[in-house]
Amino acid sequence: MGVVGAFGLTQQGGDTLANAIRQNVIDNVAKLRGAGPILSAAVEQGKLKVVGGIYRLRTGEVDMVA
Q1: DSSP letters along 24-45, please?
Q2: Are 63 and 53 in contact (CB under 8 A)?
């Protein structure tokens, strides 16, 4: 588990780039869930699920994040 630091970002040990990519996915999923009345209403009604993942070019795998 990370520690919430300045700007509300989660500070985690390890690779800075990997942590930035993961945080970007988390932030954008949160923005999409609340974006506009149509999307947010569909999410609230369970008609739409917004998820985030990181696609690994080398392996073709997707790591689900949020």
Answers
A1: HHHHHHHHHHTSHHHHHHHHHT
A2: yes
* Chain segment 47-65, per-residue pLDDT in tens: 999 999 999 999 999 999 9
**Annotated domain spans of the chain:** 14-64
| Paired tokens of 11 | 């500070």
pTM of the model: 0.70
Burial degree of 22 (CB within 10 A; 0-12, 13-18, 19+): buried
* Tens-digit pLDDT profile for residues 32-42: 988 889 888 99
What type of residue sits at position 62? V
- Measured in whole angstroms, the distance separating CA 61 from the mean position of its chain's CA atoms is 17
